[in-house]
Amino acid sequence: MRRGHMVSRVGVFCLSALVSIATGCVEQKARSPADGVTQVHLPDVRTPIPLGADAQQEHRAVMLQHLETVQAIVAALADEDYRLAQGLTESHLGFFMHRYAMARQEPADFPPAYHDLAMAHHAAAEKLTDVMPTKDLKQILPEFNNVLKACVACHLEYRLRHS
Ligand code: HEC
Questions:
Q1: Whose CA is nearest to atom 13 of ligand 1?
Q2: Measuring from atom 39 of ligand 1, which residue has the nearest CA?
Q3: Nearest CA residue ID for atom 7, ligand 1
Q4: Is the shortest distance between the CB of 67 and ligand 1 below 6 Å?
Q5: Rounded CA gap, 141 and 150, in Å?
Q6: First-residue to last-residue Cα distance in the chain
Q7: Is the Cβ–Cβ distance between 118 and 99 less than 8 Å?
Q8: Residue 147 in contact with residue 121, Cβ under 8 Å?
């Protein structure tokens, strides 16, 4: 009985020592300027797109919708609702969305290479739309990955704000 008590006290001591070592490491890491996470953001070599305040607001709204759409598509896939997943992909990420977004923006504001990345993204979304009826994740996930790769490709190249 006494021995068990001792063991558990030692256990608690060791545990709290471990926790303080662990949190110490975390704090040190967050403070260090040589931290890998901080360096990832430097230098920012993205090409800035100078948009007016309204166009910037509009662009941001489209982007936030994109992220919400991706979440809703994943939710539909988790529910095995492939028809919903297909509808969301087609109407929110496909060429229809592109025409809608372009009608509300000034295409001349965007460099041709940006437009190409946008078109590649919509083309990937159309392919994803096409494989949804297979209900086969082995076919759906690679196309979904290509859509997300197209998001990432553009984010690596362009930014809006000058900062
Ligand atoms: C053709 C280019 C392009 C594509 C494709 C693209 N984005 Fe963006 N996105 C941008 C740019 C430019 C910004 C602004 C980045 C900045 O100024 O730091 C942005 C910003 C965002 C933001 C931040 C919005 C905010 O609150 O400021 C989100 C979220 C986002 N994109 C999601 C997505 C998702 C999800 C996809 C794919 C389904 C996607 N984007 C595809 C160009 C693109």
A1: 159
A2: 151
A3: 151
A4: yes
A5: 14
A6: 65
A7: no
A8: yes
Task: Compute, in angstroms, the gap from residue 136 CA to the centroid of ligand 1.
Answer: 28
Contacts of residue 62, Cβ cutoff 8 Å, sequence gap at least 6: 97, 101
Q: Which of 66, 74, 148 to mutate to test the pocket of ligand 1 (most atoms within 8 A of CB)?
A: 66
Q: How far is CA 103 from the centre of its chain?
A: 25
pLDDT tens by residue, 106-163? 667 789 999 999 999 999 999 999 999 999 999 999 999 999 999 999 999 999 976 4
Return the domain boundaries, the chain: 2-40, 47-159
Radius of gyration of the chain (CA): 24
Give yes or no for residue 114 CB within 6 A of ligand 1: yes
Read off the pTM.
Answer: 0.78
- Find the 154 Cα to ligand 1 centroid distance in Å: 7
Distance CA 115, CA 152 (A): 15
CATH second-level architecture of 47-159? Up-down Bundle (1.20)
Question: pLDDT per residue over 66-83, tens digit each?
Answer: 999 999 999 999 999 999
Query: Is any ligand 1 atom within 6 A of the Cβ of residue 70?
Result: yes
